[in-house]
Write a structure and sequence with these properties.
The complex is a heterodimer.
Chain A (H helix, E strand, L loop, with lengths): L1 E2 L2 E2 L3 E5 L4 E5 L5 H17 L5 E8 L11 E5 L2 H9 L3 E2 L8 H12 L3 E8 L6 H15 L6 H5 L1 H7 L1 H13 L15
Parallel strand pairs in A: 5-8, 6-7
Antiparallel strand pairs in A: 1-2, 3-4, 6-8
Chain B lengths: L6 H24 L4 E2 L4 E2 L2 E6 L3 E7 L9 E6 L2 E13 L11 E10 L10 E5 L2 E7 L10
The chains are: A alpha/beta, B alpha+beta.
Chain lengths: ~190, ~140
């Protein structure tokens, strides 16, 4: 990745005094997600990070019929689930999660690192700035921050244009990682 | 005597072959530019889903003039979608200064996995996303005794 003529890593970590942000300019190849997240969790553990938030989407087939996407949450331990409930974030009680968020939750759970996944209802295959804004609003509530989402909404169409190629690559990786598994209804449960 | 291969070996080999074919198809889809400066067009993100009675094609068309959207049937398993943008966009708008060209439209041809009856197709445009519902061609109905 070249920026201002200089090489930069496509997956980067930005650090401040209170927050560390990990972000990617590329669709992470599905074959390397496991090793990347494994290494990342080890690094998080060494850094003694207090809390991890993983932000993402919950694909819904009828997204264009939804006026305001709903937000859902899952966590690496029971105490965190209570915090989600306090902030009126509905839990994903039962179902499948595929991809980086799933691995972050399970690795963090194994290592005893507190981790929360926030997911807004979204398009499974298109950039969704509206859903992103819902996730950021939920994050604002969870960590008492005030990240401004107005630009994300106002420039939604420009965001969708700019993210087109990255989404095209992401679509291919989502198929490779069998993301559609998330639609499956888990068995072994009869009411 | 030749050792017989187990059913699991055969199944695994078949699965590997299928996966290789799937990978190749995915790569063909991605390994070319999503833009064409000579026709000033960008390829929109598209999706095709097959239902029992219809094929639903959607396309993400940000910044287009809704009145300019055209959907046409090329054959019973291929449609073409075009739409003009409200304002032209160029590489510099994406922060890219080493390429030249501007874009004024979206254009793509979408192959359909099953034949459809294009004359009965419907389309709607909401939240910047085009949805085309194409009824599948009817086959012969088998009577249940």
């Amino acid at each position: 990745m070249l920026e201002e003529g200089l090489p930069k890593a496509p997956i980067r970590i930005f650090g401040g005094e209170k927050l560390i942000v990990l972000t990617s300019e590329i669709a992470i190849p599905s074959s390397s997600i496991y090793s990347i997240i494994e290494a990342l969790t080890g690094w998080i553990w060494k850094k003694k990070v207090q809390e991890v938030f993983t932000l993402g989407g919950l694909p819904v087939p009828n997204r264009y019929e939804i006026e305001k996407p709903k937000i859902f949450g899952a966590a690496s331990n029971k105490n965190l689930l209570e915090r989600l409930k306090e902030k009126n974030i509905q839990l994903i009680k039962r179902g499948f999660l595929v991809g980086p968020q799933a691995l972050i939750l399970s690795f963090c759970s194994e290592h005893g690192i507190p981790a929360i996944a926030l997911l807004a209802e979204c398009f499974h295959n298109y950039p969704d700035p509206e859903a992103s804004s819902i996730v950021i609003q939920a994050l604002n509530r969870m960590i008492d921050m005030d990240i401004d989402i107005s630009e994300l909404i106002e420039k939604g169409e420009e965001v969708r244009l700019a993210m087109r190629d990255m989404m095209r690559r992401t679509q291919a990786e989502l198929s490779r990682m069998r993301k559609s598994h998330e639609y499956d209804i888990p068995g072994y449960y009869i009411k | 005597m030749r050792k017989r291969r187990s059913i699991f070996d055969i199944l695994r080999e078949r699965m590997e072959e299928l996966e290789a074919i799937a990978e190749e198809m995915l790569d063909q889809f991605v390994e070319r530019p999503s833009w064409d400066t000579s026709s000033q067009s960008l390829e929109p993100l598209c999706d095709v889903s097959v239902r029992s009675d219809s094929v639903i094609v959607t396309a993400d068309l940000p910044r287009v003039d809704p009145k300019s959207i055209r959907v046409s049937g090329i054959s019973d398993d291929l449609i073409e979608i075009t739409a003009e943008m409200k304002v032209k966009i160029n590489f510099e708008d994406f922060g890219v200064t080493h390429r030249r060209g501007e874009f004024s439209r979206f254009s793509c041809r979408v192959p359909l996995p099953v034949p459809v009856d294009i004359s009965r197709a419907r389309a709607r445009f909401r939240r910047g996303i085009l949805e085309v519902i194409l009824p599948r061609k009817l086959g012969y109905e088998i009577k249940i005794e």
